Amino acid sequence: MGWVVSAELRAQTFTDSNLPIVIINTDGNASIPDQPRIKATMKIIYSGEGVRNYLSDQNNAAVLNYNGRIEIEIRGSSSQVLSKKQYGLTTLLSDNVSNNNVSLLGMPKENDWVLNGLAFDPSLMRDYLSYTLSRNIGVYAPRTKYCEVVINGEYRGLYLLQEKIKVDDNRVDVLKMEPTDNSGPDVTGGYIIKADKITPEDPSAWTMSSYTGGNVDFVHEFPKPSQITNAQHEYIQDQFSRLAFAAGNASISGFPSVIDVPSFVDFMVINELSANVDAYQFSTFFHKDRNGKLRAGPLWDLNLTYGNDLFFWGLDRSKTDRWQFDNGDNIGAKFWRDLFTNTTYKCYFSRRWNQLTKAGAPLNGTSIEALIDETVTTITEAAGREQTMWGTVGNLSANADAIKTWLATRMAWVTSNIGSFGACNNIMTPPLVITRIHYHPQTSASYPDSEDQEFIEIVNNGSTTVNLTGYYFSGTGFVYQFAPNTVLEPQGVLQLGNDRETFKSIYGYSPFGEFTRNLSNSSQKLTLADAYGNVIDEVEYSDQAPWPDADGNGYYLKLNSPDLDNALGSNWSVSDEALETTVVAVEKDLDEDIQLYPNPVDNILRITSSEILQGAQLRDVHGKVLESVPGGSNAISMNMARFNSGLYLLEVNVKGRLVVKKVAKK
Asked: Of 185, 535, 585, 645, which residue is least crowded by CB atoms under 10 Å?
């Protein structure tokens, strides 16, 4: 179907809808510009799920989900050529200045929102479908609600009111950084970064090469380009350099040490399921919490999917029979293909794909078809008005059927081309058990900050030593990653505390480590995983029965026996008894053992270690190998004289491990 770029508006009378009605009136009836944002008043008529909404109720406070001030502007890139615009808006307090965090249509409170105009999508559901499927598999994507929109008295059609990607506990759950967070653990997060088109407001922070021969632009989303410091910029760019360098290396010192593997796998699963033509190159987000691994997502802008593209511009790239990271067009940075062609990573992709597409699972064809049918029922009435207004829908039912047919072919092709997952199926994880949780300590004169007293305890409930290298708490909101070469002896015990000094003053010894963020005072899922994201132990505690009461009363939760199922609240009791720990052995840290001098270097770089060095490679920040030297001794040298000034990465092979060090060339 062709898209009308400058359609003549078709007059129609709009009085009521089965969907919420959003009414926006700009100050002075002004036209909404691309920028700057202008002031307006917004009302949302919503009488409740399944109840009809009437435009005549715009002054009926009983059915107004929102009635207040906003700032609004046109948003989008390619979609700006269309007569039907998309909008970004901020809810404001009555002072017309302060942000107003509110819940719109049942979504968690915030102030930044998007009115998605469903551009270039005759089905009117591709974004909605993709975001919903992501949340159905347990991965955050912007929440959405269909609505119909009236601006300055004119009906504008069907929209998705949705969350903007933003740092928030209920959106992208990472710590908000400050300009002073420039060293130590503070500089490690949180960040939101995207591969995307660049604008004057969102310039390229750095580029990474693609297998097409071009470059991919990466943009700072948070902190913003105008606010991020040099130290923060260098840190997060270095994380992507590490990823590019390690993407083909599946050892625990390779890509599992850099990325949260399940988040990358899930991101690719949805993008490949939908054959998103922009995936990996544009609107591709990443985030990283403080002390956490780099994570892919959230999803954004999936209108060119499920066989849809900008056909009227001669583009047809959403195919059933090719990988989007290797289709010769928008394939993104090299690390995407490097990850997928690694046999270990591909095994985990295959395992996850097969888990999610089996009968009854969220991505099973029957499940997706049911979601499509439900969506058609929801929007059929408004789609008729959309067709009358813009002439871009055609037959909604036929559009939905086309997606179903396309998906069946696509899913069959993916299933037949991802290979076996036998090598990573039924992974045996060690019997590490979370046995104590102090999630809401009691305040006192000695300890006025209850959060400082938080801790969790882990027991090795087995008969063999466990190497904890790469182990971490996955997900968001609670962050801890074990240092390389840490081992826990059989029946060994360790505690992780929120504040080392507070823990020591209470229990007489230091905790093994400090976690980042705080434990929820009500309920939180704690997922201990190995380096590849395989779940070792998972507990979702609660302050509600049958969990015992350890909510701010001086007690902590204690598992009655490490042999019991700690997912059941009935297997826990409360305690305030003293703790004990087992000394955790730490093997020689090879990273610390390898010495480089001089660094910064002018000519000859010397590399030494107490272990036999098996060789070294110098790479640029994009991962390209520039120089290799053989090993065989405790000291090797590399001539750096011919290289330009700047930062390089040195990969040193020692004891079968690849250790990456930074080298500065004068």
From this structure: 645
CA neighbor of 120 nearest in space, from 319, 285, 284, 313: 313
Rounded to 10 degrees, the C-alpha dihedral 521/525/529/531 comes to -70
Tell me if 70 sits within 8 A of 90, measured CB to CB. Answer: yes
Where is 87: in which H helix or E strand?
Answer: strand 86-92
Q: Are 135 and 279 within 8 A, CB to CB?
A: no
Residue with tokens 């919503």: 46
Best CA proximity match to 437, nearest among 321, 525, 349: 525
Structure token pair of residue 387: 């067709």
The whole-model pTM stands at 0.88
Residue pair 478/524 in contact (Cβ under 8 Å)? The answer is: yes
Residue 337 token pair: 């293909």
What would the 3-class secondary structure string for 415-445 be?
A: HHHCCCCHHHCCCCCCCEEEEEEECCCCCCC
C-beta separation of 203 from 220 below 8 A: no
Other CB atoms within 10 Å distance of the CB of residue 20: 23
Give 287-302 pLDDT, tens digit per residue: 999 999 999 999 999 9
Q: Which helix (H) or strand (E) holds 523?
A: strand 523-529
Q: What is the pLDDT of residues 158-186, one digit of tens each?
A: 999 999 999 999 999 999 999 999 988 89
Distance CA 337, CA 268 (A): 11
Q: Name the phi and psi angles at 163, rounded to 5.
A: -70, 140
Q: How many residues does the chain have?
A: 666
Domains and CATH numbers, the chain: 16-163 (no CATH), 184-352+402-417 (no CATH), 432-586 (2.60.40), 590-665 (2.60.40.3080)
Q: How many helices (H) does the chain have, and how many strands (E)?
A: 9, 31
Amino acid at 623: G
DSSP state of 100: -
Distance separating alpha carbons of residues 622 and 437, to the nearest angstrom: 42
3-state class (DSSP) for residue 505: helix
Phi, psi of 497 (to 5 degrees): -115, 160
CA atoms within 13 A on the CB side of 619: 21
Q: Which of 100, 291, 331 is nearest to 208 (CA)?
A: 331
DSSP lists the bridge partners of residue 315 as: none
Interval 475-498: pLDDT, tens: 999 999 988 778 899 999 999 999
Question: Among positive and negative, which fits the CA dihedral 629, 635, 640, 646?
Answer: positive
Residue 642 CB partners (closer than 8 Å, separation 6+)? none
| Contacts of 404 by beta carbon, 8 Å cutoff, 6+ apart | 368, 369, 372
Q: In what order do the strands lie in the sheet with 455-460?
A: 513-514, 493-497, 455-460, 432-438, 556-559, 572-575
d(CA 547, CA 268): 37
Tokens standing for residue 441: 């300590």
Q: What angle do CA 552, 558, 564 make, to 5 degrees?
A: 145
Q: How far apart are CA 369 and CA 190, in angstroms?
A: 37
